[in-house]
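Morning, I've got a small favour to ask if you have a moment. I've been staring at a protein lately and its backbone has me curious. You're getting the sequence in one-letter code plus the fold written as C-alpha coordinates. I've dropped the whole record in just underneath, so have a look:
=====
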Amino acid sequence: MPAAALTPELELVVARAAAAAPAFAATSPTERGRAIVAVADALEGAKASLVEIAARETGLTEARLTGEVTRTAVQLRLFADTLVHGGYLDARIDPADDDFALGVRPDVRRVLIPVGPVINFSASNFPFAFSVLGGDSASILAAGCPLIVKAHSGHPELSDATAEVAATALRAAGMPEGVFQLIHGREAGVAVLQDPRVRAGAFTGSISVGRLLADLAANRPAPIPFFGELGSVNPVFLTAAAIAERAAEIASGYVTSVSGSAGQLCTKPGFAFVPEDSELPAAIAAAAVDLAEHRLLDPRISRSFDERRQAILSAPGVRPIVEGGIRFDDAGHGWATPTIVAVSLEDFRTSREALVEEAFGPLSIVVETPDGTDLAALVPEFFEGNLTGTLHVSEAEGAGSTANAPALRALVEALSQQVGRVLFNGWSTGVAVTPAQQHGGPWPATTNDTSTSVGTAAITRFLRPVAYQNAPAAFLPLALQDANPLGVPQAIAPAGESRSWGSAATA
Protein backbone atom coordinates (compact mmCIF):
# COMPACT_ATOMS: atom_id res chain seq x y z
CA MET A 1 0.00 0.00 0.00
CA PRO A 2 1.50 3.38 -0.95
CA ALA A 3 2.10 5.80 1.90
CA ALA A 4 -0.69 8.29 2.49
CA ALA A 5 0.27 11.88 1.70
CA LEU A 6 0.74 14.08 4.73
CA THR A 7 -1.39 17.16 5.13
CA PRO A 8 0.56 20.40 5.60
CA GLU A 9 -0.15 20.24 9.35
CA LEU A 10 1.13 16.66 9.63
CA GLU A 11 4.16 17.52 7.52
CA LEU A 12 5.10 20.15 10.10
CA VAL A 13 4.67 17.62 12.91
CA VAL A 14 6.87 14.98 11.30
CA ALA A 15 9.45 17.53 10.14
CA ARG A 16 9.76 18.92 13.66
CA ALA A 17 10.20 15.42 15.09
CA ALA A 18 12.86 14.53 12.51
CA ALA A 19 14.71 17.80 13.12
CA ALA A 20 14.66 17.23 16.89
CA ALA A 21 15.98 13.66 16.71
CA PRO A 22 19.75 14.36 16.62
CA ALA A 23 19.65 16.95 19.39
CA PHE A 24 17.38 14.85 21.59
CA ALA A 25 19.57 11.76 21.13
CA ALA A 26 22.58 13.86 22.11
CA THR A 27 21.10 14.89 25.46
CA SER A 28 22.72 13.13 28.38
CA PRO A 29 20.79 10.47 30.30
CA THR A 30 20.75 12.78 33.32
CA GLU A 31 19.32 15.67 31.29
CA ARG A 32 16.56 13.46 29.89
CA GLY A 33 15.92 11.96 33.29
CA ARG A 34 15.43 15.36 34.87
CA ALA A 35 13.09 16.38 32.08
CA ILE A 36 11.01 13.23 32.54
CA VAL A 37 10.78 13.84 36.30
CA ALA A 38 9.61 17.38 35.51
CA VAL A 39 6.83 15.89 33.37
CA ALA A 40 5.84 13.55 36.22
CA ASP A 41 5.73 16.46 38.66
CA ALA A 42 3.64 18.56 36.27
CA LEU A 43 1.23 15.67 35.68
CA GLU A 44 0.62 15.25 39.39
CA GLY A 45 0.28 19.00 39.78
CA ALA A 46 -2.55 18.97 37.23
CA LYS A 47 -4.15 15.81 38.65
CA ALA A 48 -7.42 17.34 39.82
CA SER A 49 -8.34 19.00 36.54
CA LEU A 50 -7.18 16.07 34.42
CA VAL A 51 -9.13 13.51 36.48
CA GLU A 52 -12.29 15.61 36.14
CA ILE A 53 -11.98 15.59 32.35
CA ALA A 54 -11.12 11.88 32.26
CA ALA A 55 -14.10 10.87 34.40
CA ARG A 56 -16.46 12.79 32.15
CA GLU A 57 -15.04 11.38 28.90
CA THR A 58 -14.46 7.75 29.93
CA GLY A 59 -16.96 6.97 32.69
CA LEU A 60 -14.17 5.54 34.86
CA THR A 61 -14.34 6.34 38.56
CA GLU A 62 -12.48 9.21 40.17
CA ALA A 63 -10.68 6.80 42.51
CA ARG A 64 -9.50 4.62 39.65
CA LEU A 65 -8.34 7.63 37.62
CA THR A 66 -6.58 9.29 40.53
CA GLY A 67 -4.63 6.11 41.17
CA GLU A 68 -3.82 5.87 37.48
CA VAL A 69 -2.28 9.36 37.48
CA THR A 70 -0.05 8.29 40.36
CA ARG A 71 0.92 5.12 38.51
CA THR A 72 1.78 7.14 35.41
CA ALA A 73 3.97 9.54 37.38
CA VAL A 74 5.75 6.65 39.12
CA GLN A 75 6.30 5.03 35.73
CA LEU A 76 7.92 8.21 34.41
CA ARG A 77 10.20 8.48 37.45
CA LEU A 78 11.20 4.83 37.11
CA PHE A 79 12.43 5.48 33.58
CA ALA A 80 14.26 8.61 34.73
CA ASP A 81 16.31 6.58 37.21
CA THR A 82 16.79 3.86 34.60
CA LEU A 83 18.49 6.47 32.43
CA VAL A 84 20.87 7.58 35.16
CA HIS A 85 21.84 3.99 35.98
CA GLY A 86 22.70 3.37 32.32
CA GLY A 87 22.36 -0.40 32.21
CA TYR A 88 19.76 -0.04 29.45
CA LEU A 89 22.57 1.03 27.08
CA ASP A 90 24.04 -2.50 27.20
CA ALA A 91 27.56 -1.09 26.73
CA ARG A 92 30.03 -3.82 25.70
CA ILE A 93 33.75 -3.35 25.21
CA ASP A 94 36.13 -5.86 23.63
CA PRO A 95 39.60 -4.26 23.72
CA ALA A 96 42.10 -5.01 20.94
CA ASP A 97 43.74 -8.39 21.50
CA ASP A 98 46.87 -9.57 19.70
CA ASP A 99 46.52 -12.99 21.35
CA PHE A 100 42.89 -13.60 20.34
CA ALA A 101 42.06 -17.27 19.66
CA LEU A 102 41.09 -16.57 16.03
CA GLY A 103 43.87 -14.13 15.21
CA VAL A 104 44.27 -10.46 16.05
CA ARG A 105 41.05 -8.99 17.47
CA PRO A 106 40.25 -5.36 16.71
CA ASP A 107 38.89 -3.04 19.38
CA VAL A 108 35.10 -3.50 19.16
CA ARG A 109 32.59 -1.56 21.28
CA ARG A 110 28.81 -1.87 21.14
CA VAL A 111 26.02 0.30 22.55
CA LEU A 112 22.33 0.99 22.00
CA ILE A 113 21.25 4.28 20.43
CA PRO A 114 17.81 5.87 19.82
CA VAL A 115 15.99 4.71 16.68
CA GLY A 116 14.57 8.16 15.87
CA PRO A 117 11.01 9.54 15.76
CA VAL A 118 8.30 7.16 17.03
CA ILE A 119 4.50 7.28 16.80
CA ASN A 120 2.48 5.93 19.72
CA PHE A 121 -1.23 5.11 19.31
CA SER A 122 -3.00 5.68 22.64
CA ALA A 123 -5.31 3.24 24.42
CA SER A 124 -8.89 3.95 25.45
CA ASN A 125 -9.10 1.92 28.66
CA PHE A 126 -6.13 3.55 30.43
CA PRO A 127 -6.50 7.28 29.70
CA PHE A 128 -3.33 8.02 31.66
CA ALA A 129 -1.18 4.88 32.06
CA PHE A 130 -1.40 3.75 28.40
CA SER A 131 -2.31 7.00 26.73
CA VAL A 132 -0.57 10.32 26.08
CA LEU A 133 1.97 9.92 28.89
CA GLY A 134 1.69 6.17 29.46
CA GLY A 135 4.34 3.49 29.53
CA ASP A 136 4.97 3.53 25.79
CA SER A 137 5.38 7.31 25.75
CA ALA A 138 7.62 7.21 28.83
CA SER A 139 9.93 4.60 27.34
CA ILE A 140 10.05 6.37 23.97
CA LEU A 141 11.07 9.67 25.56
CA ALA A 142 13.53 7.93 27.88
CA ALA A 143 15.16 6.25 24.89
CA GLY A 144 15.82 9.69 23.42
CA CYS A 145 13.33 9.40 20.58
CA PRO A 146 11.03 12.27 19.53
CA LEU A 147 7.46 11.20 20.25
CA ILE A 148 4.32 11.74 18.17
CA VAL A 149 1.22 10.60 20.08
CA LYS A 150 -1.94 9.74 18.20
CA ALA A 151 -4.72 10.63 20.66
CA HIS A 152 -7.51 8.15 21.30
CA SER A 153 -10.92 9.30 20.07
CA GLY A 154 -12.49 8.22 23.36
CA HIS A 155 -10.83 11.00 25.37
CA PRO A 156 -9.77 13.81 23.01
CA GLU A 157 -10.14 16.68 25.51
CA LEU A 158 -8.07 14.82 28.10
CA SER A 159 -5.43 14.05 25.46
CA ASP A 160 -5.07 17.72 24.59
CA ALA A 161 -4.86 18.75 28.24
CA THR A 162 -2.30 16.06 29.09
CA ALA A 163 -0.23 16.90 26.03
CA GLU A 164 -0.13 20.56 27.06
CA VAL A 165 1.16 19.56 30.50
CA ALA A 166 3.88 17.39 28.95
CA ALA A 167 4.95 19.85 26.26
CA THR A 168 5.19 22.72 28.72
CA ALA A 169 7.29 20.69 31.17
CA LEU A 170 9.66 19.42 28.48
CA ARG A 171 10.10 22.90 27.06
CA ALA A 172 10.87 24.32 30.50
CA ALA A 173 13.39 21.52 31.06
CA GLY A 174 15.30 22.61 27.95
CA MET A 175 14.42 19.71 25.69
CA PRO A 176 14.54 20.43 21.92
CA GLU A 177 11.38 21.69 20.23
CA GLY A 178 9.55 18.84 18.51
CA VAL A 179 10.37 16.04 20.97
CA PHE A 180 6.70 15.73 21.98
CA GLN A 181 3.66 16.31 19.74
CA LEU A 182 0.02 15.20 19.63
CA ILE A 183 -2.16 14.43 16.63
CA HIS A 184 -5.81 13.36 16.27
CA GLY A 185 -7.55 10.96 13.87
CA ARG A 186 -6.91 7.41 12.66
CA GLU A 187 -6.10 8.55 9.12
CA ALA A 188 -3.53 10.99 10.48
CA GLY A 189 -1.97 8.23 12.56
CA VAL A 190 -1.76 5.88 9.59
CA ALA A 191 -0.19 8.57 7.43
CA VAL A 192 2.46 9.35 10.04
CA LEU A 193 3.19 5.65 10.62
CA GLN A 194 3.98 5.29 6.90
CA ASP A 195 6.24 8.34 6.68
CA PRO A 196 9.89 7.31 6.12
CA ARG A 197 11.12 9.70 8.82
CA VAL A 198 9.22 7.74 11.48
CA ARG A 199 11.31 4.81 12.70
CA ALA A 200 9.01 2.79 14.99
CA GLY A 201 5.41 2.49 16.17
CA ALA A 202 3.60 1.46 19.36
CA PHE A 203 -0.08 0.66 19.93
CA THR A 204 -2.47 -0.62 22.58
CA GLY A 205 -5.88 -1.70 21.32
CA SER A 206 -7.83 -4.29 19.38
CA ILE A 207 -6.38 -7.21 17.45
CA SER A 208 -7.97 -6.07 14.18
CA VAL A 209 -6.61 -2.52 14.30
CA GLY A 210 -3.27 -3.66 15.70
CA ARG A 211 -2.84 -6.17 12.88
CA LEU A 212 -3.67 -3.48 10.31
CA LEU A 213 -1.09 -1.09 11.74
CA ALA A 214 1.54 -3.81 12.16
CA ASP A 215 1.08 -4.83 8.52
CA LEU A 216 1.40 -1.21 7.39
CA ALA A 217 4.65 -0.88 9.34
CA ALA A 218 6.00 -4.15 7.93
CA ASN A 219 4.99 -3.37 4.34
CA ARG A 220 6.64 0.03 4.11
CA PRO A 221 9.45 0.27 1.52
CA ALA A 222 11.72 0.38 4.58
CA PRO A 223 9.90 -1.70 7.23
CA ILE A 224 10.00 -0.51 10.81
CA PRO A 225 9.46 -2.25 14.17
CA PHE A 226 5.93 -2.07 15.52
CA PHE A 227 5.07 -2.94 19.10
CA GLY A 228 1.37 -3.61 19.62
CA GLU A 229 -0.45 -4.90 22.68
CA LEU A 230 -3.64 -6.38 21.28
CA GLY A 231 -5.74 -9.07 22.94
CA SER A 232 -5.65 -11.47 25.89
CA VAL A 233 -8.06 -13.74 27.78
CA ASN A 234 -5.68 -14.57 30.67
CA PRO A 235 -6.72 -18.10 31.68
CA VAL A 236 -6.81 -19.09 35.36
CA PHE A 237 -6.44 -22.64 36.70
CA LEU A 238 -7.62 -23.56 40.19
CA THR A 239 -6.95 -26.81 42.03
CA ALA A 240 -9.52 -28.58 44.17
CA ALA A 241 -7.23 -28.18 47.19
CA ALA A 242 -6.95 -24.41 46.69
CA ILE A 243 -10.74 -24.08 46.50
CA ALA A 244 -11.25 -26.25 49.58
CA GLU A 245 -8.72 -24.12 51.45
CA ARG A 246 -10.07 -20.64 50.60
CA ALA A 247 -13.13 -20.72 48.30
CA ALA A 248 -14.64 -17.48 49.57
CA GLU A 249 -11.37 -15.57 49.25
CA ILE A 250 -10.78 -16.84 45.71
CA ALA A 251 -14.36 -16.07 44.67
CA SER A 252 -14.14 -12.53 46.01
CA GLY A 253 -10.85 -11.87 44.23
CA TYR A 254 -12.16 -13.33 40.99
CA VAL A 255 -15.32 -11.22 41.00
CA THR A 256 -13.33 -8.09 41.82
CA SER A 257 -10.87 -8.79 39.02
CA VAL A 258 -13.63 -9.44 36.47
CA SER A 259 -15.74 -6.45 37.42
CA GLY A 260 -13.06 -3.82 38.12
CA SER A 261 -13.16 -0.93 35.62
CA ALA A 262 -16.13 -2.74 34.06
CA GLY A 263 -13.84 -5.54 32.90
CA GLN A 264 -12.22 -3.24 30.35
CA LEU A 265 -8.68 -4.39 31.13
CA CYS A 266 -6.34 -6.37 28.92
CA THR A 267 -5.42 -8.48 31.96
CA LYS A 268 -8.97 -9.38 33.02
CA PRO A 269 -9.32 -13.14 33.70
CA GLY A 270 -11.53 -14.32 30.86
CA PHE A 271 -11.57 -18.01 31.78
CA ALA A 272 -11.28 -19.97 35.03
CA PHE A 273 -10.77 -23.74 34.90
CA VAL A 274 -12.12 -25.43 38.03
CA PRO A 275 -12.85 -29.04 38.99
CA GLU A 276 -16.44 -30.04 38.24
CA ASP A 277 -18.78 -30.23 41.24
CA SER A 278 -16.62 -27.58 42.89
CA GLU A 279 -18.07 -25.20 45.50
CA LEU A 280 -16.53 -22.23 43.69
CA PRO A 281 -19.56 -21.33 41.49
CA ALA A 282 -21.74 -20.96 44.59
CA ALA A 283 -19.03 -18.87 46.26
CA ILE A 284 -18.81 -16.67 43.16
CA ALA A 285 -22.58 -16.10 43.20
CA ALA A 286 -22.41 -15.12 46.86
CA ALA A 287 -19.50 -12.74 46.23
CA ALA A 288 -21.30 -10.98 43.36
CA VAL A 289 -24.35 -9.80 45.28
CA ASP A 290 -25.27 -6.10 44.99
CA LEU A 291 -22.52 -5.08 42.56
CA ALA A 292 -23.11 -1.61 41.17
CA GLU A 293 -23.38 -1.02 37.44
CA HIS A 294 -20.48 0.68 35.69
CA ARG A 295 -20.46 2.70 32.48
CA LEU A 296 -18.44 1.26 29.64
CA LEU A 297 -15.95 3.50 27.89
CA ASP A 298 -18.00 4.46 24.85
CA PRO A 299 -21.09 3.41 22.85
CA ARG A 300 -19.09 1.34 20.36
CA ILE A 301 -17.52 -0.76 23.12
CA SER A 302 -20.93 -1.03 24.80
CA ARG A 303 -22.60 -2.40 21.66
CA SER A 304 -19.74 -4.82 21.06
CA PHE A 305 -19.91 -6.11 24.64
CA ASP A 306 -23.68 -6.56 24.43
CA GLU A 307 -23.33 -8.62 21.24
CA ARG A 308 -20.50 -10.73 22.69
CA ARG A 309 -22.40 -11.32 25.92
CA GLN A 310 -25.51 -12.49 24.06
CA ALA A 311 -23.44 -14.84 21.88
CA ILE A 312 -21.84 -16.43 24.95
CA LEU A 313 -25.13 -16.80 26.83
CA SER A 314 -26.67 -18.43 23.75
CA ALA A 315 -23.96 -21.07 23.37
CA PRO A 316 -25.04 -24.66 24.15
CA GLY A 317 -24.35 -25.75 27.72
CA VAL A 318 -23.65 -22.27 29.08
CA ARG A 319 -25.47 -21.41 32.30
CA PRO A 320 -25.25 -18.18 34.27
CA ILE A 321 -23.61 -18.09 37.69
CA VAL A 322 -24.04 -14.33 37.84
CA GLU A 323 -26.60 -13.12 35.30
CA GLY A 324 -25.44 -9.51 35.07
CA GLY A 325 -26.70 -7.29 32.30
CA ILE A 326 -26.30 -4.10 30.37
CA ARG A 327 -28.60 -1.13 29.86
CA PHE A 328 -28.19 1.75 27.43
CA ASP A 329 -28.81 5.38 28.30
CA ASP A 330 -30.07 8.10 25.96
CA ALA A 331 -26.51 8.92 24.86
CA GLY A 332 -25.89 5.32 23.79
CA HIS A 333 -23.57 4.54 26.70
CA GLY A 334 -23.82 1.05 28.15
CA TRP A 335 -24.05 0.53 31.93
CA ALA A 336 -23.05 -3.03 32.83
CA THR A 337 -23.06 -5.37 35.79
CA PRO A 338 -20.77 -8.41 35.60
CA THR A 339 -21.81 -11.63 33.92
CA ILE A 340 -20.10 -14.87 34.96
CA VAL A 341 -21.14 -18.13 33.35
CA ALA A 342 -20.22 -21.79 33.69
CA VAL A 343 -19.81 -24.49 31.05
CA SER A 344 -18.57 -28.07 31.10
CA LEU A 345 -15.27 -28.86 29.41
CA GLU A 346 -17.15 -31.00 26.89
CA ASP A 347 -19.52 -28.17 25.97
CA PHE A 348 -16.61 -25.72 25.91
CA ARG A 349 -14.94 -27.89 23.29
CA THR A 350 -18.17 -28.12 21.30
CA SER A 351 -18.80 -24.36 21.45
CA ARG A 352 -15.17 -23.31 21.28
CA GLU A 353 -15.67 -20.98 18.32
CA ALA A 354 -18.41 -19.05 20.12
CA LEU A 355 -16.69 -18.91 23.49
CA VAL A 356 -12.92 -18.68 23.21
CA GLU A 357 -12.53 -15.12 21.93
CA GLU A 358 -12.05 -12.19 24.30
CA ALA A 359 -15.13 -10.50 25.75
CA PHE A 360 -14.00 -6.92 26.42
CA GLY A 361 -16.09 -6.01 29.41
CA PRO A 362 -17.24 -7.52 32.74
CA LEU A 363 -17.70 -11.12 31.66
CA SER A 364 -15.83 -14.32 32.44
CA ILE A 365 -16.35 -18.04 31.82
CA VAL A 366 -15.88 -20.81 34.38
CA VAL A 367 -14.93 -24.09 32.66
CA GLU A 368 -15.65 -27.18 34.75
CA THR A 369 -13.12 -29.97 34.22
CA PRO A 370 -13.57 -33.67 35.06
CA ASP A 371 -11.25 -35.31 37.58
CA GLY A 372 -8.01 -36.40 35.93
CA THR A 373 -8.10 -33.75 33.18
CA ASP A 374 -4.63 -32.94 31.81
CA LEU A 375 -4.70 -29.19 32.48
CA ALA A 376 -1.37 -28.59 30.76
CA ALA A 377 -2.80 -29.97 27.51
CA LEU A 378 -5.71 -27.49 27.66
CA VAL A 379 -3.43 -24.48 27.33
CA PRO A 380 -2.32 -25.02 23.70
CA GLU A 381 -5.65 -26.67 22.83
CA PHE A 382 -7.74 -23.59 23.53
CA PHE A 383 -5.49 -20.56 23.63
CA GLU A 384 -3.08 -18.60 21.51
CA GLY A 385 -0.67 -16.20 23.17
CA ASN A 386 -1.77 -14.31 26.27
CA LEU A 387 -0.40 -11.65 28.54
CA THR A 388 -0.89 -13.75 31.66
CA GLY A 389 -1.73 -17.16 33.03
CA THR A 390 -2.62 -17.79 36.68
CA LEU A 391 -2.55 -20.76 39.03
CA HIS A 392 -4.32 -21.00 42.38
CA VAL A 393 -2.83 -23.78 44.49
CA SER A 394 -3.05 -24.81 48.13
CA GLU A 395 -0.34 -24.14 50.68
CA ALA A 396 0.86 -27.74 50.45
CA GLU A 397 0.79 -27.69 46.64
CA GLY A 398 2.81 -24.49 46.71
CA ALA A 399 5.52 -26.30 48.63
CA GLY A 400 5.75 -28.82 45.78
CA SER A 401 5.20 -31.78 48.08
CA THR A 402 1.84 -33.13 46.90
CA ALA A 403 1.11 -36.01 44.55
CA ASN A 404 -0.01 -33.65 41.78
CA ALA A 405 3.28 -31.70 41.80
CA PRO A 406 4.43 -33.13 38.42
CA ALA A 407 1.11 -32.17 36.80
CA LEU A 408 1.34 -28.65 38.25
CA ARG A 409 4.92 -28.27 37.00
CA ALA A 410 3.75 -29.35 33.55
CA LEU A 411 0.96 -26.77 33.71
CA VAL A 412 3.43 -24.03 34.67
CA GLU A 413 5.67 -25.01 31.77
CA ALA A 414 2.72 -25.03 29.36
CA LEU A 415 1.67 -21.57 30.50
CA SER A 416 5.22 -20.22 30.24
CA GLN A 417 5.19 -21.17 26.56
CA GLN A 418 1.94 -19.26 25.96
CA VAL A 419 2.08 -16.18 28.20
CA GLY A 420 4.39 -13.39 29.28
CA ARG A 421 3.62 -13.52 33.02
CA VAL A 422 2.74 -16.53 35.18
CA LEU A 423 1.01 -15.67 38.47
CA PHE A 424 0.37 -17.74 41.57
CA ASN A 425 -2.47 -17.23 44.04
CA GLY A 426 -3.32 -13.75 42.83
CA TRP A 427 -5.11 -11.96 40.01
CA SER A 428 -3.75 -10.66 36.76
CA THR A 429 -5.38 -7.23 36.94
CA GLY A 430 -3.25 -4.58 38.63
CA VAL A 431 0.06 -4.77 36.76
CA ALA A 432 2.93 -3.87 39.09
CA VAL A 433 5.09 -1.05 37.69
CA THR A 434 8.50 -2.45 38.56
CA PRO A 435 11.79 -3.07 36.72
CA ALA A 436 11.30 -6.83 36.26
CA GLN A 437 7.73 -6.64 34.98
CA GLN A 438 6.86 -8.39 31.72
CA HIS A 439 3.72 -7.10 30.01
CA GLY A 440 3.70 -8.85 26.68
CA GLY A 441 3.26 -12.32 25.26
CA PRO A 442 3.02 -14.39 22.08
CA TRP A 443 0.62 -13.32 19.32
CA PRO A 444 -2.09 -12.07 19.61
CA ALA A 445 -1.27 -10.70 23.05
CA THR A 446 1.43 -8.60 21.39
CA THR A 447 2.95 -8.27 17.94
CA ASN A 448 6.43 -8.94 19.33
CA ASP A 449 6.67 -11.50 22.12
CA THR A 450 10.24 -10.56 23.05
CA SER A 451 9.19 -7.10 24.24
CA THR A 452 7.27 -5.59 27.14
CA SER A 453 5.24 -2.39 27.52
CA VAL A 454 5.69 -2.21 31.31
CA GLY A 455 8.97 -2.39 33.24
CA THR A 456 12.37 -0.95 32.44
CA ALA A 457 13.04 -3.43 29.62
CA ALA A 458 10.40 -1.51 27.63
CA ILE A 459 12.99 1.12 26.73
CA THR A 460 14.94 -1.31 24.54
CA ARG A 461 12.11 -1.40 22.00
CA PHE A 462 13.12 2.06 20.82
CA LEU A 463 16.88 1.57 20.72
CA ARG A 464 19.08 -0.16 18.18
CA PRO A 465 22.65 -1.49 18.50
CA VAL A 466 25.72 0.05 16.87
CA ALA A 467 29.26 -1.34 17.11
CA TYR A 468 32.35 0.87 16.75
CA GLN A 469 35.55 -0.82 15.56
CA ASN A 470 38.98 0.71 16.25
CA ALA A 471 37.32 4.07 16.88
CA PRO A 472 39.50 6.82 18.40
CA ALA A 473 38.31 7.73 21.88
CA ALA A 474 37.28 11.20 20.73
CA PHE A 475 34.69 9.66 18.39
CA LEU A 476 33.22 7.09 20.78
CA PRO A 477 29.89 7.56 22.54
CA LEU A 478 30.45 8.49 26.18
CA ALA A 479 29.11 5.13 27.35
CA LEU A 480 31.90 3.32 25.47
CA GLN A 481 34.85 5.45 26.51
CA ASP A 482 37.44 3.92 28.84
CA ALA A 483 37.04 6.92 31.17
CA ASN A 484 33.29 6.12 31.36
CA PRO A 485 32.21 9.69 32.19
CA LEU A 486 28.57 8.58 32.51
CA GLY A 487 29.45 5.89 35.05
CA VAL A 488 27.31 3.30 33.28
CA PRO A 489 27.81 -0.47 33.55
CA GLN A 490 30.28 -1.71 30.93
CA ALA A 491 30.70 -5.39 30.02
CA ILE A 492 34.41 -5.75 29.19
CA ALA A 493 35.94 -8.87 27.60
CA PRO A 494 39.61 -8.56 28.59
CA ALA A 495 42.40 -9.33 26.14
CA GLY A 496 43.60 -12.91 26.46
CA GLU A 497 40.43 -14.44 27.86
CA SER A 498 39.49 -16.10 24.56
CA ARG A 499 42.17 -18.73 25.18
CA SER A 500 40.14 -20.03 28.11
CA TRP A 501 36.70 -19.94 26.49
CA GLY A 502 34.83 -23.18 27.21
CA SER A 503 36.61 -23.87 30.46
CA ALA A 504 33.73 -22.60 32.57
CA ALA A 505 31.36 -25.05 30.89
CA THR A 506 33.68 -28.04 31.42
CA ALA A 507 34.92 -27.25 34.93
